[in-house]
Please model this.
Amino acid sequence: MAVCPRVQSQDIPNPPRVPLPITQSGEPLSWQVTQRDFHSETWEAAEAIPNPETNKPIIQRHKFVTLGSGLNFFDEQSQQFKPTVEKFELTPDGFAIAQYGPHKLIVENNINSATALDILCLDGVRLKLGPVGVAWFDPLQQTNYLLATIGNSSPELTSDNTLLFRDCFQAAHFRGSIRVTYRKVGISADLLVHEISDPEILGLSAFTRLELYTELTADSPIPSQTTFVIQNESNDELVRTMESPDLLTDSWLDFGAYKMPTGFGFEVNGNSDRRVRVGKRFMLTPDNRRILIEAVQWQDAKKSFAGISRSRTNELAAFGAGASGQKLKEAVGQTSPSLNRKSNSGIYASPGATLARLVPLRPAVKPVAAPIQQAKAKTSSKEPGS
Model:
């Protein structure tokens, strides 16, 4: 998940202009920022150039404007724009706060929380969310299979602007972490996969996708979204294979001043050219659970996972198909649970249309004993993320 600010002007006054220092002709110019807003800076310099006719200097002004998302933030105390600082500050109770940017972020001391990430956008919109689980989705079988649910985990501060919830999923057959990064351009929450099984070996089809489910709180806004079908071989073959298939799509999510644009999966410290498109969907359950689905096509992504550990067991738990640890072949052989409109887990695209998915409820939240700690070592370079 990534949240990025939209470049736009703001009606916040700048401080009075300060006279520019004048440099003599031939000397290096003394550049100064004379105006700022959230996404731009105006730089100016003045130079005294001799007039050969009058022998009096002519003051020549130079000016350029730099543009970039989130360059500055408005400091309420000084009532001035200041450069954004990509940095978390830690609180005594283990929370992490990033507040020196146009968007503010509070990260709780437990990733297993409905408000694990609390984002205040520059237009006042507030998004509160937290991951709930990871699953395989097989569009050919029209159902999903649970890989893991989120667990109770405290973060490590691995750099000034990065937090890592290490091994934060509950599962015997999947290992993964959540990495939260605060940048000028926005906020990202990445799934880092350390151990996983090949879904085809487990009996799922070649069309299978890896999906991450994140839930937003009921008071978070519903975005407008522009959706398009991702062009890839799996989608093309799926269209030829079945009627009305659930294709891999991506949505541009618009929350106002903030957007969730197109994202990509990639290898951490690996081949930067090997990227896969991450498809997003924002859906509502019948009881108004706000769910963000992020998915990668396994056929496109599995090369990036070739170097990591394989699960030590070929077992999965199907949503609604029994307890964790049930063999996948047994689970696949069962009828997938019906999506009852009174269920709090079935996801619907619109009235009368269904998506064959069940999203797990958040596990019980338990206090974490360890506060945020400064990490002594970063995540292994062999651990790819998506």
User: Anything to note?
Assistant: Residues 6-10, 312-354, 376-386 have pLDDT under 50 and may be disordered. The radius of gyration is 25 Å. The first strand starts at residue 2 and ends at 5. Residues 84-374 form one domain.
